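[job 4471] stage=fold_predict status=RUNNING
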Amino acid sequence: MQVPPLYSALKKDGQRLSTLMKRGEAVEAKPARPVTVYSLSLQRFQPPFFTLDVECGGGFYIRSLVSDIGKALSSCANVLELTRTKQGPFTLEEHALPEDRWTIDDIAQSLEHCSSLLPAELALKKPKPEESSEHVLSCEYITLNEKKGEDDVIKTC
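[job 4471] inference complete, writing structure tokens
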């Protein structure tokens, strides 16, 4: 069982708890709810720092886990860095595009590859045969004001 943190995306009356708290409104903690942890392993321990590898189900709060570990040790603990390595069928190693490959062609190719991993009803629609480009990309230019300088135009894709 895990109690969701007050600063979370959970909602009360259609509004995020975190938004209500930022406004100074009183927010009651949500009740503890069942969560699933498939594996939890200590990867590195160099006091006072440690690195965990956690495989868990949806709705699990890693920061809450770390805080709970600190409390169990009669101390405190917080997260310095958090990396999501898998979400559904997508993994960081296989599906994240390295920064040196942030080109239109590489991005389009990655999107095509990733769409094949999704259920058919969620997959990206393929371009129609009459569209002549290998990768279809729609761009428009928006002018911010009357002066037509290079700095005054935003390219959106």
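[job 4471] summary: Confidence is low (pLDDT under 50) at residues 135-157.
[job 4471] exit 0
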